[in-house]
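User: Before I run my own analysis I want an independent prediction to cross-check against. Here's the chain; please return only the structure tokens and, at the end, one sentence I can use as a sanity check.
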Amino acid sequence: MTTVNIDGNSNQTNLILGSENANIADNEGKVAALVASVDCFNYGVASGDPLADRVIIWTHCQDTLKSDDLSVDWELSLTDDFASVFSTGKAVSTAENGNTMKVDVTGLSANTTYYYRFKYVNTYSMVGTTKTLPIGSVTTVKLAVSSCAMYSRGYFNAYKELGNSDVDAVLHLGDYIYEYGNLLDTTFVNTPDVRQTYPITDCFTLENYRDRYKLVRTDEDLQLAHQKKPFINILDDHEVANGSWSGGAKNHTIATQGPYDVRKAVAYKAWFEWIPIRESTDRIIYRNFEFGDLVSLYMLDGSTYRDKAYDTEVLMGDMLSGVNAITTVISAADRVMLGATQTDWLQSGVTNSTSKYQLLGNGKLLADDSMPLHIMYAGYTAPDTVPALVGAFAALSDASKNDVPVVPQGDGWNQYPVERLALLDFFQQMEQNKHLISVAGDSHNAFDLNVFASDGAKVGKEFGTQSVSNDYDVTLAMPNTPPAQLAGLFGVGMHKHLTWTDLSQRGYLRLDITPAGVTPTWNFMDIKSKTYDVTTHTATYDYSTV
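Assistant: Structure tokens:
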């Protein structure tokens, strides 16, 4: 166990936001003042989408005394004192891009650490550190994996930990922000929000989303993570709205928030402005990264093109007709999460890859996360019976468990079974010297899982990362069931797939990959205090002979 004692720094952010024990309601005006008053570089710096010969560097600069575009200098060096500058240039801050700037710095050397900074007039930004990807024979790849960072629910301690680690890059699997306004409500959780979000209402305009990004980027721990590590991001649903799909979202009301396509467009625009992603002309989010001969990474976009997920609250009606209705809808052959174009891209990349590990960055769990129908139904209707039902199911043989009707939870891969199984069957046909590893976000919980093809053969491993700070978890799926009764629920529902899980702790996942094997390490820490301990759970999977 590593004990970390963190003292609040007396910087601008903490002075304005107040201590962790401050009355959240009193911070509304203070947060608004902070967001409105920032000037150049107050949101730090960031780098992202590293390749072997290039990397994106990012910052924000707004001169409140000038309405024209701003010319901002940038420098990149092999040393942090900039005694020998490797490359320089100018970036332009425009109101059209929300005064954010991204530079794709090219001509770099592989597997090399660089330092960068920006300058406006006589003001320098903080110095950022980044690293290019390796080529050729690679002996180790070290990655941090994170998702689901809800500003109001807890502190971003995980970002501080991964920022201070020795990982090469950070994979962020979505829900970098949440669109929700303040949720000062303990209906589904036992504790109130620890700090107030801004805007205080749901984001649905471009200004709303920009202000939300500004708020989270005032967080010193997130700033540190971006300053120290290159990020590789995808989005999930909350960057737009809960339950978003290609044509709508569960948390969208046309009458008060206007057409969904307008909301989606401005949400994506803000995401591209604030995330250090390399932009193509058509702004395709799915993309791949090569770590020499060891890892081919495919970051998937499971939100932009997907069909609407079926709402499992139908189970509040008749149980059997509910599951039959769900099965009928989700089993349609044309239902997709990725879509044909993205699937073709992925399969082509895997086929042509010469890397040992084929690593998928998933917004949702790829493994089967179905729950027994009768247990989920009981969670809504008769919560006192859940422990006995869980125990009885656990006592069944695997063959008997397979005969019990199950229902998919949430809006994940299980809602798209035809496309999901076709993808896993494709991976089953890979050459024997290639190995499927998936990392996934969204669930808020830590998972060590197996994934299987349609014939029941194991085709790979999946590691789900717990949330950075969102503690809305399985208690949402069964709002009438005390959390203590749910401890074994995922083990029951995923009996073939689950190796290990933790349903209550937050943090991030670390992945160490070598030719000999893969080691996932889940790092856990408190999110309600800035003083915390770090505990870990580690597993090792041997690939030395395959």
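Sanity check: DSSP finds 15 helices and 25 strands in the chain.
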